[in-house]
């Protein structure tokens, strides 16, 4: 039987290049530690692992060690902070999967199945992903001639109606919507996304 | 894992943020992981994710900078 080759280190990288990548990662670790710790706590909470929030700092130390050990896999053209966040998310994701005893890449959400999309979001090509997201987007409702915008908006509550009207009737961006309400852009994006989901669900019922 | 080759436009970022919020609200790790792949090459999207995470942190009282927590019922 042929022996399986297990090789995780990219030996083609020079020591100097590896050190350059580690330095870039270390700098981001120092600069963004508190943000990334907050992200870890958030991911733990959103993935029903809130009871592990006391372990957030331990997870962060694991992220630091993992990232430095695998610095050869880090593309220095990419944002170091974004890469570290992905490593942090993966750490939480492993805990989540352990908790759920899920098998990697087999989970396809109900929403995806509903729209007849037969692939996993994570494994889909970039083009396929955007085709799917555009097809699913509530924007298509507003393009159909048989409904007026107000008829479409009438299926959701007043708060959702207000923000959806700003986005799809008045064509404001999330930043402009945030300024309109005096809230952060993040809040506007979350509120808009939730309103779109509720509109989508109401249309599915009909 | 798919590689990300091109610069995103505003509409694509909006779609991805929607997918990210959906992923967090539904605890769908595949959706969140997919969106995070795009942040590696798109600084604007990465900044938008920062904003969204700050909002969620405020919503969950994870950070003292919870200035948007008053919006938790939205």
Task: Give a written overview of the molecule.
The complex is a heterodimer of chains A (206) and B (74). Chain A has 10 helices and no strands. Chain A has 206 residues and is an all-alpha fold. In chain A, helix 1 packs across helix 3 and helix 8 crosses helix 10. Chain B is an all-alpha fold and 74 residues long. The longest helix of chain B has 17 residues. At the A-B interface, helix 1, helix 3, helix 5 and helix 10 of A face helix 1, helix 2 and helix 3 of B.
Summarize this structure as a short list of keywords or feature phrases.
A: 206 residues, mainly alpha, 0% strand, B: 74 residues, globular, disordered C terminus
In short:
Chain A has helices spanning 15-46, 56-69, 80-100, 110-114, 126-136, 139-143, 149-153, 158-169, 174-181, 185-205. Chain A is mainly α.
List the helices and strands and how they pair.
The complex is a heterodimer of chains A (206) and B (74).
Chain A: H1 15-46, H2 56-69, H3 80-100, H4 110-114, H5 126-136, H6 139-143, H7 149-153, H8 158-169, H9 174-181, H10 185-205
Chain B: H1 10-25, H2 29-39, H3 43-59
Specify the helix fraction band of chain B.
Answer: 55-70%
| Tally of helical segments of chain B | 3
What portion of residues of chain A belong to β-strands? under 5%
SSE run of chain A: HHHHHHHHHH
Element pattern of chain B in H and E: HHH
Tell me the quaternary state: heterodimer
Morphology of chain A: elongated
Distance between the termini of chain A: 59 Å
Q: Whole-number average pLDDT of chain B? A: 81
The low-pLDDT segments of chain A are 103-118
Radius of gyration of chain A (Å): 22 Å
- Could you say which overall geometry of chain B the principal axes of the C-alpha atoms support? globular
Major sheet characteristics of chain A: none
Number of strands of chain B: 0
Tell me the helix content of chain A: 55-70%
Secondary-structure-derived class of chain A: mainly alpha
Instruction: Tell me the greatest interface.
Output: A-B, 56 and 50 residues
Distance between the termini of chain B: 34 Å
Poorly predicted regions of chain B: 64-74
| Global Rg of chain B | 13 Å
Structural class of chain B: mainly alpha
């Amino acid at each position: 039987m042929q022996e399986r080759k297990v090789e995780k280190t990219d030996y083609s990288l020079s020591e100097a290049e590896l050190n350059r990548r580690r330095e870039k990662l270390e700098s981001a670790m120092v600069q963004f530690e508190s943000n990334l710790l907050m992200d870890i706590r958030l991911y733990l909470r959103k993935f029903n692992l809130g009871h592990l929030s006391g372990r957030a700092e331990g997870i962060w130390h694991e992220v630091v060690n993992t990232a430095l050990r695998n610095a050869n896999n880090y593309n220095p053209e990419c944002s170091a902070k974004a890469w570290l966040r992905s490593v942090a998310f993966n750490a939480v994701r492993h805990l989540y999967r352990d908790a759920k005893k899920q098998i990697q890449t087999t989970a396809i959400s109900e929403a995806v199945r509903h729209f007849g999309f037969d692939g996993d979001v994570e494994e889909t090509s970039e083009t396929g992903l955007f085709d799917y997201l555009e097809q699913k987007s509530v924007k298509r409702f507003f393009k159909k001639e048989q409904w007026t915008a107000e008829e479409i908006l009438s299926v959701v509550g007043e708060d959702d109606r207000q923000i959806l009207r700003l986005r799809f009737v008045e064509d404001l961006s999330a930043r402009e919507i945030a300024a309109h309400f005096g809230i952060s852009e993040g809040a506007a994006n979350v509120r808009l996304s939730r309103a779109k989901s509720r509109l989508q669900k109401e249309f599915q019922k009909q | 894992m798919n590689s990300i080759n091109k610069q995103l436009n505003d509409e694509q970022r909006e779609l991805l943020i929607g997918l990210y919020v959906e992923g967090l609200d539904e605890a769908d790790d595949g959706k969140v992981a997919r969106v995070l792949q795009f942040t590696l090459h798109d600084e604007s999207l990465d900044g938008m994710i920062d904003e969204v995470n700050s909002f969620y942190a405020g919503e969950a009282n994870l950070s003292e900078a919870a200035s948007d927590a008053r919006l938790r019922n939205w």
